[in-house]
Write a structure and sequence with these properties.
The complex is a heterotrimer of chains A (292), B (348) and C (288). Chain B is α+β, with helices and mostly antiparallel strands and 348 residues long. Chain B contains 9 helices and 20 strands. In chain C, β1 and β2 form a beta hairpin. The chains are: A mainly alpha (292), B alpha+beta (348), C mainly alpha (288). Chains in contact: A-B, A-C, B-C. Chain C: It is found in: Cell inner membrane; Cell membrane.
Chain lengths: 292, 348, 288
């Protein structure tokens, strides 16, 4: 079967419409990755002569350590953001007027930039911060900013991203779920049972998608770990930016190697995430097809 | 599995808008009451109040005389079926029906065993393992019905449950509901805008308009003895004949028609249903008129007649439903008479 | 034994379990309180981080153990009107608006074409347009920086280009979602009513998609308005935006008042814009 020529010219026109966006993305990302790779290998130096060298990649232990910190931050933040975000969404769907208020306030925090949120969390959680003062500066108030557990950083990510998770979940399951939870109520399900047996299973897919987005975002985010984290060890973003801005221009290849490592980790995580969602989708399809 | 349901002076307002005003209604055990009204009449709101999904602004809901107004939906033991089946998309058919039992703490195996019995009742036992998306609309609605029944509700609430189904399926559902009523004898409140559906399924009909119950009466009575012209119109009655009562007889362009003997003298509306009128030869009839419209609808034909009026009488149009196709055309003169002897009037 | 089974002609259906009469008692106090506690906890989670920002922005002296400022002052808020901060605000505004215009236009065009392309091609293009989400922004900026500077692209334009790439996945996605539920029959009806192709695009399509345009534009505006890392790494101090001022204030010790005031200056414009869009959207909504 041949494609009618009218259809072909229509799709050519459609491609042309997409061209500006696609070209921009492909050119900028392609060029950025290529330049980063070349610079990490000693080509395209800021000044001096180009010289192939794998030196920037040599300090594998330090790169791995940074990657480990980044993965730890992303994992902990994503987990907390998913739990709180789901609670917000479930509360919004089950608690009537109060639920709508919580959902609206939560959504209103989404435009707040991470930089602002980091500053706010700093003011809240620092040694003599607002929370410590409100609690009367207790003896055992834990160090949360710059501590070895990265508590303030994780809380900042979770605070911002839980609102995003709630938004995605509410958008993904939305109104039909409100009706389904009502139906469940008339069938005798308590609020807790409605949350666990109706909303949670239906929210699985939006939670998965939101989780992946949050994970990749926190993996590459700079502001919170820079402002609220300890000086060492550094996550990939902080390490890369420090090396990139260093007066010692010879650290540029190392900065690029760090940046590329973060790209590699992000891509690996996305690949894994897509694999998992596909498998779970196939499983649910197999489940539903049992007797058909 | 049945109890009686009583609304006692229930009112509800959304903001400034009063959607239900002082509703008092009793649904006896094992009976079926239809709430009939147009959209916006407040009938679905009343049902949500009965289910406990909405607290009324004022008044009480009683089940078996016990005030349940403060009891939440999940504790109230009412089963609710909406217009959309609202099957849980992540659960198989049998697990949807087993849902209530699982929530009540039943084991998976026992809940499913019970669920299968209800699926058998709605003739869908073979579909137990399917997912909701693999059913037709009619099948989904049957599962929704089975799921509500499996809760063993004291009151079964149906909110336009069949109105998204096509005609044939709707007839099947009427059959099914009749079977269910015979076997389980549930107390049913049915919300509908379809007067035929209300008449087929219910024992009594409560007519709702603008948040108020205009009349609540057995099906035949509400058709032939409407309490007001509004009820008459909502139930499809086409005729309102203005006349005067003198000594138990209604005088109008339709002639002299005997009404209930205790009817006070004075102006009154006679409301004979179009099915209760008949066309006669022009000669012997007490009332004569000119045919203005003939509208066939299959086995029946609706004939509109403008009656000849005496000088002191209002001009009156009536509609007469006749079987088959009358040999008449527009402009012909015909006689009109009431089948039976007594008429139903509402004094003005 | 809780169930009594009674035989019925076509099937067997269990009778309702006998119920304890004290049904009211089962609505226990704890059940009622739990949702309230959860709601309060969530409200606290959402609002608590904003409390110190509000307090610090109007604080004069606020020594350590005191839970509230010892004295109040409008000095920090007044300092927002200093030429340096106003200038930074204008740069941020310019950046936000430029990114909004660029990314919304390109995203809309891309989404329309995604809708029309044959399936495989549409998937490939869609995938390409999502890739910026997968690249950590600082990595993208570092690589692009070298190229853009050696191509002598002016600093502002270079920042704009990188941020537009960052914003494109969001705008494209927003439009794709809107188009998925867009009923093309509106346009067909308009054509049969005598509207020309061009008029249809202007008076029907743009009007119906206005909410999507607003949402996409808002997201893209946020990308430019709140960017820190791109401006710092590429701009190299050639122009200073609000986030840069906030970053240097928040990373140095002391100066909580200024940090708080700058935070408010960054939060309020988008919130006002959002409220405006929400009101305008509620009024101009076409479907019920």
């Amino acid at each position: 079967m041949s494609v009618p020529s009218g259809q072909r010219s229509a799709s050519r026109r459609a491609l042309l419409t997409a061209a500006p966006a696609v070209l921009l993305v492909v050119l900028v990302i392609g060029a950025a990755l290529l330049t980063a790779l070349l610079q990490s290998l000693g080509f395209l130096p800021v000044f001096g002569e180009a010289r192939f060298s794998t030196e920037a990649w040599a300090d594998g232990a330090s790169l791995l350590e940074s990657a480990g910190v980044s993965l730890y931050l992303a994992t902990a933040s994503t987990a907390l953001a998913l739990v709180v975000g789901f609670l917000v969404a479930a509360y919004a769907l089950t608690a009537g007027r109060g639920g709508r208020l919580v959902a609206a306030l939560s959504a209103a925090t989404i435009p707040i930039p991470h930089l602002v949120a980091s500053g706010a969390i700093g003011l809240l959680l620092a040694d003599a911060g607002f929370l410590a003062r409100v609690l009367g500066m207790p003896e055992g108030f834990p160090q949360l900013v710059g501590d070895s557990w990265w508590a303030a950083v994780i809380l900042e990510f979770a605070w911002k991203e839980s609102a995003f998770v709630a938004l995605v979940v509410l958008g993904g399951i939305g109104r039909p779920v409100a009706e389904l939870t009502e139906t469940a109520a008339t069938l005798g399900a308590s609020a807790r049972q409605r949350m666990l047996h109706v909303i949670l299973p239906l929210a699985r897919v939006p939670l998965g998608v939101a989780g992946l987005v949050v994970f990749v975002y926190t993996l590459g985010s700079y502001e919170a770990p820079w402002l609220l984290g300890p000086v060492a060890p550094e996550p990939l973003s902080v390490r890369a930016v420090r090396l990139f801005g260093s007066v010692d221009l010879s650290s540029r290849p190392e900065a690029m190697a760090t940046a590329l490592t973060s790209v590699a980790v992000a891509l690996a995580v996305i690949g894994l995430g897509l694999l998992l969602t596909r498998r779970s989708r196939r499983r649910s399809r197999a489940q539903s097809g049992v007797s058909s | 599995m049945s109890s009686s349901l009583t609304f006692d002076a229930v009112s509800h307002r959304f903001g400034a808008e009063e959607v239900l005003r002082d509703i008092t209604l009793c649904v006896p055990e094992s009976s079926c009451v239809a709430l009939l009204g147009a959209s916006g009449s407040g009938k679905s709101t009343l049902l949500r109040i009965a289910a406990g999904l909405l607290p009324p602004s004022a008044g009480q809901v009683r089940i078996d005389g016990e005030d349940v107004t403060a009891v939440e939906a999940e504790k109230r033991e009412t089963g609710l079926v909406f217009q959309r089946p609202l099957l849980f998309p992540h659960l198989s058919v049998v697990d949807n029906v087993a849902f209530a039992s699982r929530m009540a703490g039943g084991s998976k195996a026992e809940s499913r065993r019970q669920a299968r019995e209800y699926l058998e009742l709605v003739q869908l036992a073979d579909y137990a393992q399917r997912m909701p998306g693999q059913l037709s609309g009619g099948q989904e609605q049957r599962v929704a019905l089975a799921r509500a029944l499996a809760r063993r509700p004291r009151i079964l609430l149906l909110d336009e449950p069949f109105s998204s189904l096509d005609l044939g399926l709707r007839e099947d559902m009427y059959e099914l509901l009749e079977t269910i009523r015979e076997q389980l004898r549930p107390t049913i409140v049915l919300v509908t805008h379809d007067r035929r559906e209300a008449s087929v399924l219910a024992d009594t009909i409560a007519v709702l308009e603008h948040g108020e119950i205009l009349q609540h009466a057995p099906v035949a009575q509400i058709h032939h003895q409407p309490a007001s012209p509004a009820v008459n119109r909502i139930l499809g009655g086409l005729n309102e004949v203005l006349g005067v009562i003198r000594a138990g007889v209604h005088h109008s362009a339709l002639g002299r028609i005997t009404v209930a003997p205790d009817t006070p003298d004075g102006p009154a509306l006679l409301m004979p249903r179009q099915e209760s009128l008949q066309l006669t030869g022009a000669g012997e009839a007490p009332a004569r008129g000119t045919v203005t419209q003939i509208r066939p609808s299959g086995a029946h034909t609706l004939v509109r007649v403008t009656l000849d009026a005496a000088a002191d009488q209002e001009r009156v149009d009536v509609a007469v439903e006749v079987t088959g196709t009358p040999r008449l055309s527009r402009g012909d003169t015909t006689g009109v008479g009431l089948r039976g002897t007594a008429g139903w009037v509402v004094p003005l | 034994m809780t169930t009594v089974t009674k035989p019925v002609p076509s099937s067997r259906v269990p009778e309702r379990r006998p119920q304890p009469s004290a049904r009211r008692a089962s609505v226990s106090g704890w059940r009622r309180i739990l949702p309230v506690v959860l709601g309060a906890a969530l409200l606290l989670w959402i609002l608590l981080p904003l409390a110190p920002v509000l307090l610090w922005s109007v604080a004069g002296q606020w020594r350590a153990p005191a839970p509230l400022p010892g004295s109040w002052s409008s000095q920090a808020l007044e300092s927002l009107l200093s030429p340096e901060i106003l200038q930074a605000g204008l740069w941020s505004l310019a950046l936000g608006m430029s990114v909004a215009v660029a990314a919304t236009t390109l995203g809309a065009l891309a989404a329309f074409s995604l809708h029309r392309l044959p399936r495989t091609l549409s998937r490939i293009v869609g995938f390409l347009l999502l890739t910026p989400l997968a690249i950590p922004p600082f990595a993208l900026v570092m690589g692009a920086n070298v190229l853009l500077l050696s191509a002598r692209v002016p600093t502002f334009a270079a920042v704009l280009i990188v941020l537009t790439v960052t914003a494109l996945p969001y705008t494209t996605y927003m439009f794709s979602v809107a188009l998925a539920s867009y009923d093309w029959r509106f346009e067909e009806v308009a054509r049969t009513l005598g509207a020309s192709r061009v008029r249809v695009i202007r008076t029907v399509r743009m009007a119906l998609l206005a909410p999507a345009i607003a949402r996409a534009g808002f997201l893209a505006f946020l990308v430019g308005w709140s960017d820190y890392i791109t401006t710092v790494l590429i701009g190299g101090g050639q122009f200073r935006t609000l986030p840069m001022l906030l970053g240097s204030s928040a990373s140095s010790t002391g100066g909580e008042q200024l940090t708080a005031a700058l935070s408010l200056a960054m939060i309020l414009p988008p919130v006002i814009l959002l409220a405006f869009l929400a009101r305008w959207g509620a009024r101009g909504r076409i479907s019920p």
